[in-house]
Structure of DsbA family protein:
Amino acid sequence: DEYAAEVREQEQLWISRGVTSVPTIVFNDQYAVSGGQPAEAFVGAIRQIISESKN
């Protein structure tokens, strides 16, 4: 099935990038928050990304 092949391809891509759990939210293709996290985890990640982008 063509869709299954695409899903497997994407699965392998994200596994190769270190994603091992669902959900995993990826920011800017380089920062990730894994698992079911409270809103504060996302706020912290976004603040860190903003801080690093200013430097």
Remarks:
- The chain is about 55% helix and 15% strand.
- The chain has a mean pLDDT of 91.
- The first helix runs from residue 2 to 16.
